Amino acid sequence: MLVTIVKGDTLWHLCQEHLKDPLRWRELSKYNDFTNPHLIYPGEELRIPVSMAKEVVGVAEEELVEYQAELERLKVELAESEATRDKLEAEISGLNESMAQLKAQLMALEDSLKSQEKLMDAVSQSSDAVASGIKEALEMNKACYP
C-alpha cells in the first residue's frame, strides 16, 4: 500500500492513521528508503506492507466483536432499566391514586368531625337550657312550698 505524504504528515501520525499504532513507525523504515525518518517531505511515498495492514484489519475486527458484545450488553441493561422504570411509574401511579383516596377520606372525616362538633354544641346548649329550666322549677317549687 502506498501513501503519498502531504504537508504536515509525520510518520507517527501516518502509523496511527493506517496501522492504529504510532510506535510502529520504526518498522516502516525496513520498507522505505528514508535517509532520516524524522524528516519526511510532501510528495514522497510511504510503503506500508499489506501484511501490516492486514494485522490492523484483524485487530479492528476483534475490537468490533468486543464492541458489538458490549453494545448487546448495554441493550439488555437498557431494556432492564426501561422495565424497571415502567414498573416504578406504575407503582407511583398507584400510590398517587391511594393518596387521592386517602385525601378524600380525610376530608370526609373532617366534615364528619365538624358536624359532630355542631351536634355536641347543640346538645350542650340544650342541656344548659334544661338545667336552667329545672333550676327555675326547683326555685319556684321552693317559693311555693317553703
UniProtKB/TrEMBL annotation:
Residues 1-48 form the LysM domain. Residues 57-119 form a coiled coil. SUPFAM superfamilies: LysM domain, Tropomyosin. CDD domains: LysM (cd00118). Keywords: Coiled coil. PANTHER family: PHAGE-LIKE ELEMENT PBSX PROTEIN XKDP, POTASSIUM BINDING PROTEIN KBP. This is LysM domain-containing protein. The lineage of its organism: Eukaryota, Metazoa, Porifera, Demospongiae, Heteroscleromorpha.
